[in-house]
Amino acid sequence: MLPEIKLMRFLRALTALLLICGVAHAAAPQIFDSQAGKLSVTEIATGLENPWSLAFLPDGRMLVSERPGRLRIVSAQGQVGAALSGVPAVVARGQGGLLDVVLAPDFSDSRRLYFSYSEPRPGGGNATTVAHARLTDTALQQVTVIFRQQPAIDSQQHFGSRLVFDRDGALFITLGDRNRARDRVQSLDNHIGKIVKLTADGQVPSDNPFADRDGALPEIWSYGHRNVQGAALHPLSGALWTHEHGARGGDELNIARAGLNYGWPVISHGREYSGLKIGAGLQRHEGMEQPLHYWVPSIAPSGMAFYTADRFPAWKNSLFIGSLKFGQLVRLQLDGERVVSEERLLEGLNRRIRDIRAGPDGALYLLTDEADGAILRVEPRA
Length: 382
Fold this sequence. Notes:
By secondary structure, this protein is mainly beta. The chain has two helices and 24 strands. A hairpin with a 5-residue loop joins strand 3 and strand 4.
């Protein structure tokens, strides 16, 4: 046997052994500047196809959704596991697919997780659906749908889909305008361009703002949204903070409060992709909320996390938002409910940031939305 053939077989066997032992992808960290000092960005896992959401399991492993319809467990060292069985069929076209995933507040006991996805509907069309399931190391079991956005629309865009539990265990679900149905966003008889709030088993909380209003769907929490792809609870107030995509400019940061109207498509700080005005070109209108902060040009925001750990003292309670368009990480310095400054981080990274999560080790973890997507860890340079 030729020596090079023996060497190739040896290397293949060694690679298989390393994977079995849990030794994962490791790359040299990239170093970036920030106002808090040098940052180290390490690629800890690769080979994820358009990952959309990341959730930390209690044992330090990570649960990652891939938009084509797969859910995987990734070890703390970055070893990517096989796709879990039991994931429902998704519409994996355009912006659709398997989307957000979060753990139930009582996950350690129940092993229950919640996930959102673009679901094909009977008779055509698709829409955002939310289900819960019991997690094992190889499968989702007891999958139960608790919410279906209505109406279904034949569209590949604007599914929204962030999931956030509040401090009382109720679930917020963000829903987009589906791009083709903006004329329905201001009406309360549908789920288009809304944020809804449900109990953990899919019931309507009695204190929802429209629970007793005739002609309104009682699960609606707020409305007038375009496409919310970032949502997180403020660590002090417990309020739901969200961001949403504008069209050509006009991405917004908001606090989603009960019963309020956030204006889309009547008001916007952006323009149509063609450059024309959106509607009458209004930026303000009575009874419609102004954003806390907005971006022109658009950064295409996705993912959002408050930082509360101690590894970056200067970042305490800062808000981090990913940019799909510029491949950056945006840090907003806050004073209460006011944005006092904005810092653009990871200039030159040039990777679409889809999700951001604060890790149990005090680092920030990012998902890159690519065909060969990665998990990145951001931490102070040693």
